[in-house]
Amino acid sequence: MKSRRSLLVVAFVLIVWVLTGAFSTAASPARTPEQPKSRRKGSFLRMRRLSKRATILSLALTLVLAGGIGFALWSSTGSGSGNAKAITPVDVTVSAVTGAADLYPGFTAGDLYFTLTNTNSYDITFISMTPGTITTGAPGCAATDITVASASGLSIVVGAGSTSGTLSIADVVSMVGTAPDACKGATFTVGITLSGAQS
Amino acid sequence: MKKATVVSMALLLLLAGAGAAGGAWVQGAAGSANASATTLVEATILKSGKAKSGNNWEVTLCWIPSVSSFADGYEILRSTTSGSGYAVIATVSGGSSSSYTDTTVSANQDYYYVTRATKNLWRSPNSNETSENTKGGATTC
């Protein structure tokens, strides 16, 4: 907060500095062919000084803006800072729900079902999914009886401050051909990580 | 000096643009999702028939195939006791198959049949039971 205030003070001083030059120039009478050469030269020098100040001001503003963007990007990692006024993004929660039972031995186009809870104040669109650990509670049926592929090119939108209805990612789950009879009707829980951006 | 002004103004615009474009935060989500396996639905036996050729009998079973489109065949189970003691006596390939003739029966015997749909190592529940005996005259499915 202190550094931001300092930046504002510096910017204010620079603006006043440039405006002072501008007023001083504006106060001078317009140059006429009758003006003495020395007077015309003084006006030229004032214009040149103003241009110089404008250059310095724009450079200063550039630095301030660059610093601001850098600061915003840093805060968007979600690591948190007492100084950040920007909203800290909160990870969206993915909750497993049971959807259509479509897996059988040798089937390679099974779907994943879940809901999303977004506590952020903006909509989010997820574009990719990376699978994690697979578990199943069905005795005699192993987690290795299915495989889950990564997915990209998705467009899964969850609104600000809301929980979605049932969502799915299609055609990413396969069941091995040797899946035992114990896998009939089994539910597999798959850890997933979604990546996306504010939309 | 004029060039420096132009360059710095361009940089200013560039950074402003970058700031606007980069304003969309990268967002993550973690948790779990479910995938579920289906079941294998059993066939329904319609009825049976029997025929005699000399001293040899044969029993024919007819059934409605499983509604599980991925079924790849059927097991035929037989018992001489109703409701229990079934043993697999044959397999029939093809999920749309709907009949089987048992030529391993003996004369003057009661038999009880069920079928099971199959898919690789999966087995459906038993179908309903149908009974047949190798006595009297011939019948058809």
The radius of gyration of chain B is 34 Å
Mean pLDDT of chain B: 88
Mean pLDDT of chain A: 75
- Find the structural class of chain A using helix and strand composition: alpha+beta
How many extended strands of chain B?
9
Low confidence ranges of chain A? 1-8, 21-41, 63-82
Helical percent range of chain B? Answer: 10-25%
- What best-fitting shape of chain B do the alpha-carbon axes yield? elongated
What's the total helix number of chain B?
Answer: 1
Percent in helix of chain A: 25-40%
Low-confidence stretches of chain B: 12-22
In what range is the share of β-strand residues of chain A? 25-35%
What sequence of helices (H) and strands (E) makes up the elements of chain A? HHEEEEEEEEE
Cα separation of the termini of chain B: 103 Å
Largest sheet of chain A: 5 strands, antiparallel
Report on the biggest sheet of chain B.
5 strands, antiparallel
What does this structure look like?
The complex is a heterodimer of chains A (199) and B (141). With 199 residues, chain A is α+β, with helices and mostly antiparallel strands. Chain A has helices at 2-26, 37-75; strands spanning 92-96, 101-103, 110-118, 124-136, 146-148, 151-158, 162-163, 167-175, 187-198. In chain A, strands 1, 3, 5, 7 and 8 form a five-stranded antiparallel β-sheet that branches. In chain A, helix 1 (2-26) runs antiparallel to helix 2. Chain B is mostly beta strands. Chain B is built from one helix and nine strands. In chain B, strands 4, 5, 7, 8 and 9 form a five-stranded antiparallel β-sheet that branches. The longest helix of chain B has 20 residues, at 2-21. The N and C termini of chain B lie far apart (103 Å). Mean pLDDT of chain B is 88; it is low at 12-22. Strand 1 of chain A pairs parallel with strand 1 (26-37) of chain B, so a sheet runs across the interface.
